[in-house]
C-alpha cells in the first residue's frame, strides 16, 4: 500500500471556470490510499450544461484502478431539538443548483451590511458557511448551531426548541437572504404611475422594473416570479389590475370527495317547527355551497335568507362566514341554520338563550338548555316587543293541550275543573305574584311569572315598559330567558333541545384516501373567488370597502419554482391537516397552458429536484427532505441520516413543499 496526493477539482453547476484558487471549500486536496481512477458525477440528474460535475482527475504510478466513489453534498444535519423543520428546508435550498453555484463562489462581495430591512449580513454569512460545510468532503453530519443562533437573533419565533412549519421558516429565510444580499444599497423612492387603462404587457413590465429598482439579489434572480391580480367590485363592476412579485406559490388542495352533513333549520315565522336536513356538499367547498344545498332542501323562499351558526353548550359559539371552508367543519360540530326574512336584514339580531333553575334555595343555579332562538328587531324596541317576539318563536313548540292536561292530572292525582285547568295555547299570561308576605321563598318570588328576560350578562332584568337598545356595540343583543316550571311543562323542550351532530360515522369507518393532481391544485389557486369579510377591498369608485371578486393569473415564472401545498388549515378554534395524495410531475411539469403572458424567451417546463416532507399530525409531526442528487438518484435526508430512495417512493401524502427548476424546451 502507498499514499499519494489526489487533486479533487469541484466544478459546480456550470461555472465556466473551475473554482480552483477562488475558494478553499470548492477545491480541496485529499490524501487517499490506493491507486487512482477518473470518474464523473452529475448533479440533479440532468444532462444540460448548467449541471455540476464533480471530476476526479489524475494519474497513478502503478497504473491500477481505484473503484471508490466520492459523493459530495450527501451530509446530514444534526437535530438540535425539534429542528427537523429547519433541516428539511435547508437541505432543499443547499441542493438548489443556482444557490450552490452562488454560495461556493465569491458571494461576500454582494453582502449588504447596511440594509435596514436585512440582518446585517449575518444570516447570509451563516447560511453560506453552512452550505459550504455540507458540500465539503466527508460524511460526518453537520451541527447547524451557529446558523440557528443567528436565526434566533433576528427571528425570535424560531428560538428555543419548539416544532415549527418548514414553509414558514423557508419564507423567512428566503426573504432574509434576499435583503442581506440585495445589490441595491440605497432603495430609491418610486412614485406610482397611473397605469390604469394601459395594456397588460406595458403595465406588467413597469411594475417589474420598479420592483427590480429596489430589489436585486440572487434570490430575486432565481426564485421570484410575477402574477397578475384582478379585483372586481361586485356592485359597480370597477376593475383594478396590479402585477405583484411572488417567491413561491401556495396552492390549495381541492377535494373530489363529497361530504354528507346534517343541519337543523330553525324557522322564525312562528309557525314551522325546527327540521333536520341531510345534504351533500363538496368537502373542499365553501359555506356558500352548503347554504345553496340547504336552501334547496328546505325550499327557502326568494324573500328569505339563512344564517348558519355553530352551537356549543346551548350557546352560539360563532356565525359561519360565507367564504369559510367546509373542510374546517368537524363531524362532531352542531350547526343550526336560521331562516330570516330578507327585508329585516337592516335590523340587528336578537339571540335568545334559555335558562331554568336547577335547584331552589338561597343561591339557585341557572342551567342553560335548548337551541338558541334568533330574530331581528328594530334598534329601539321595548321589553314587551322582545317578549312578544320570543313567544312568537316559541309558538311551534307548544305542547298539545291534551298532553298538558294529562301531565297535570298525573302530577296532581285528579282532574279538577277542566275549564279552570285549561291553558291558553296561544298567549301565555303573567300569573299574579302580588299576594303573599315578605317571607316568600326565592322560587315563589321569581318563578311566579311565565318568563323573565335579562340582558346578556344576566345582571340586568329587561322591563316590559322600558326601551332597550338592541344593536349595542356588536349589532347583536343576547337575551337570557329564565323559564318557570309551568312553561317547561307547557312547551316541548325535548324538541327544542334536539340538535344532532354534523355527521355520526359508523364504528371503525375509514375515509377513502383522496387523490388530486398538482394541475388541479393550480386551477383551484387561479379560479375566481370572493374576498373574505376580513379582507375587504376599498373600491375607489364606491368609496367604501367591498367584498370584491379576486382572480390571480401567472404572468412571469421564476427559474426556481417553489410550490407550497396548503396541507394545514387554521381558524380561531382549531387546526387541521389534509392527508390528500397530490400527484405531482417529476420530470415534466408544464405550465404553458396556465401562464397568461406568452413569452417564447423562457421555457415554462420544470423538473423536480427536492421535496420537503411532513409526516404525522399537528404538533407531533416530523420533517424530512427528498433530494435528487445525481445520475437520477434520489436520497432521503432525515436529519443526520442520509439514504438512497427509489423515485417511485418519493410521491407520498407527506409531500409539503416542492422545488422545481426550469428546463429548456425540447
Automatic annotation (TrEMBL):
InterPro entries: Papain-like_cys_pep_sf, Peptidase_C19_UCH, Ub_carboxyl-term_hydrolase, USP, USP_CS. Coiled coil: none annotated. Residues 426-439 have a biased composition (Polar residues). Keywords: Hydrolase, Protease, Thiol protease, Ubl conjugation pathway. GO terms for molecular function: cysteine-type deubiquitinase activity. It comes from Fagus sylvatica (Beechnut). Belongs to the peptidase C19 family. Residues 409-442 are annotated as: Disordered. Gene3D superfamilies: Cysteine proteinases. Pfam families: UCH (PF00443). The lineage of its organism: Eukaryota, Viridiplantae, Streptophyta, Embryophyta, Tracheophyta. One of its GO terms (biological process) is protein deubiquitination. Its EC number is 3.4.19.12. This is Ubiquitin carboxyl-terminal hydrolase. It catalyses: Thiol-dependent hydrolysis of ester, thioester, amide, peptide and isopeptide bonds formed by the C-terminal Gly of ubiquitin (a 76-residue protein attached to proteins as an intracellular targeting signal). It comes from the Eukaryota. Residues 75-663 form the USP domain. Signal peptide: none annotated. Recognizes and hydrolyzes the peptide bond at the C-terminal Gly of ubiquitin. Involved in the processing of poly-ubiquitin precursors as well as that of ubiquitinated proteins.
